[in-house]
Amino acid sequence: MTLNRAKAHRLIATLLSPYTESVADLRVAMPKFSDEDWELLAKMAGQHMVSQAIFPALQQHSLDDVVPQDVIEYWHDLASNSAARNLALREQLVELITHLNSHGIQPILIKGSAHILLGTYQNLGDRLSNDLDILIANEDAQTGYEALQSIGYWPDDDKLEYESSHHHFPPLMRDDVFASLEVHRDLLELSLSCLIPTEDAIGSAESIDPENGLSAQVLSIEMRLMHSIVHIEITDRCFEAAQTELRQLHELALLVSSYGDRIDWGMLIRYADAHDFGVHLRANLYAARKFMGVNIPNTVFARHRIAVLCHYWRTRARYASKTFHFLDKTVWRRMHSERMVREYGGPRRPLNVNIARIKHVLYAPARLFKKSYSRCDN
Question: In whole angstroms, what is the distance from residue 53 CA to residue 78 CA?
């Protein structure tokens, strides 16, 4: 077997990156891959939700002729199915935007919805979207949500509690569409709303070029990058787990490649530092630079260098060593600053985090007793 998890991760990142200029080494290495190597690649691509993007990347780099026929057919089918699905999602978006416009509402497209309509990805099927997300200004959110129900959508019965306690309404379903629809009244969940306040996001929104008379907006490029990073690193806890999600890095690489000098990096890092996610943002951008060669200015990393480097090497070690992965998951992650802040409160500052760690150790016997007692009680 030629590949391990770390090499497979880097290979996929190289294939997907818009900054990759030469794949000569892959052309030499790929014919030597065993069945186990191809299985590992397919498994890792699936875990990172980028399987549908592999075939177009292989074609782009003229590598499809060195991949076994059954493997290339598998990735070709995934790419074709994803492209057809995203085309249907695009039509779904056009329909719902048109209907909201008829009620005087201009939605803000976020996450996958923005990418699908703007054509961020060179190949329509490259991004896998589980649902469609739109943000509507709070005063119009309820009206917009009810308006969409008038064209056949209905709320997910399993999530009706979202009505009053969640940053988006219960997901809307419909039999004849591919994806559920999430209407956001806030950009982030309540506990994280201080990181990117909804009013800041809405204030940054820009109108997109009208298509078929559509009236919609997207967040500014800086807000889109920050939202993506906060969502993956904090909401999905990838920073805490030292995971690099290739789907998100691929998306970030495409955005930076597309917008280039139009990105205000100074504004981006000042905002992140002021809202207490500067380390998370830099760690994610550093991973994008190292794994995908994304062109990030050095000034971005002027602060938090040690924390960012430690996070990067922790991430690499988790992919390279199963032993480190086990120890990291069972020991270090339980004492990670993110978990300490989540469980004991307070700011993400070294003093507060270390006090929380001391409490965590001191309270360990009580937690064990509580768990034992609850097991017996049940």
Answer: 8
Nearest to 288 by CA among 317, 248, 228: 248
Q: How far apart are CA 41 and CA 16, in angstroms?
A: 13
Average pLDDT over residues 174-196: 91
Q: Distance between alpha carbon 213 and the CA centroid of its chain, in Å?
A: 30
**CB of 219 closer than 8 Å to CB of 201:** yes
Judged against a pLDDT cut of 50, whether residue 369 lies above it is answered with no
Greatest extent of the chain over all pairs of C-alpha atoms, in Å: 64
What lies within 8 Å, CB to CB, of 261 at 6+ separation is: none
pLDDT tens, residue by residue, 19-75: 999 899 999 999 999 999 999 999 999 999 999 999 999 999 999 999 999 999 999
- Please state whether the predicted TM-score (pTM) of the whole model is above 0.85: yes
d(CA 57, CA 77): 14
Of 166 and 26, more confident? 26
Give 143's Cβ-side CA count (13 Å radius): 14
> Given pLDDT bands bounded at 50, 70 and 90, which one contains residue 7?
very high
Reduced 3-state DSSP string for the chain:
CCCCHHHHHHHHHHHHCCCCCCCHHHHHHHHHCCHHHHHHHHHHHHHCCCHHHHHHHHHHCCCHHHCCHHHHHHHHHHHHHHHHHHHHHHHHHHHHHHHHHHCCCCCEEECHHHHHHHCCCCCHHHCCCCEEEEECCHHHHHHHHHHHHCCCCEECHHHCCHHHHCCECCCEECCCCCCEEEEECCCCCHHHCCCCCHHHHHHHCEECCCCCCCCCEECCHHHHHHHHHHHHHHHCCHHHHCCCCHHHHHHHHHHHHHHHHHCCHHHHHHHHHHCCCHHHHHHHHHHHHHHHCCCCCHHHHCCCHHHHHHHHHHHHHHHHCHHHHHHHHHCHHHHCHHHHHHHHCCCCCHHHHHHHHHHHHHCHHHHHHHHHHHHHHC
- 272-297 pLDDT, tens digit per residue, is 999 989 999 999 999 999 999 999 99
Rounded-to-integer distance, Cα 188 and Cα 167, Å: 6
